[in-house]
Specification:
heterodimer, A: mainly beta, six-stranded mixed sheet, five-stranded antiparallel sheet, 11 strands, globular, B: mainly beta, seven-stranded mixed sheet
Amino acid sequence: GQNIDQPTEMTATEGAIVQINCTYQTSGFNGLFWYQQHAGEAPTFLSYNVLDGLEEKGRFSSFLSRSKGYSYLLLKELQMKDSASYLCAVRNSGYSTLTFGKGTMLLVSP
Amino acid sequence: SAVISQKPSRDICQRGTSLTIQCQVDSQVTMMFWYRQQPGQSLTLIATANQGSEATYESGFVIDKFPISRPNLTFSTLTVSNMSPEDSSIYLCSVPGQGVYGYTFGSGTRLTVV
């Protein structure tokens, strides 16, 4: 099975940088995803890591260390619209199913 | 990435009744997934809908309560049967993306059971 941990809530200021951590313990691993979910909306895909290292996509970057069972999502130049829940999800090896963490609610203040 | 049309977007149902949720994908996909998201919680996988075979249910979910149909590679339904207030949740369907693209989700069905 999978166990995924991420902080429940974080706060940051507009224009700042925030790092959301995710740790996982898994019996199999075939990639890690980050999703953004605004209240009342479906999750939207942000990033995908399957190999160790950093993936950068504009203001968003995601890092993975498979040996440590650790990932983070880095958000730069925060904007008010970045206030949302951020979900870490692990794909099980041999299957295509995703297991989601409980999500981190990020509040960006002026 | 695929585009998913999910219906209904919301419904209020009486306890003891059933609701069927539909997802239509604009491309053929081998697997479709159904998730539940209870208020303030993350997503929990209910089952994987496979075309041509029975759905695969996760621990804690059973076919009698959540029957799934998958008549072709672009369409699936999830029925929430004999509903109780504890079934009040958002239900979402999802399909895998291609390569490094993430999984796509339907817009969700917000179900309230009274």
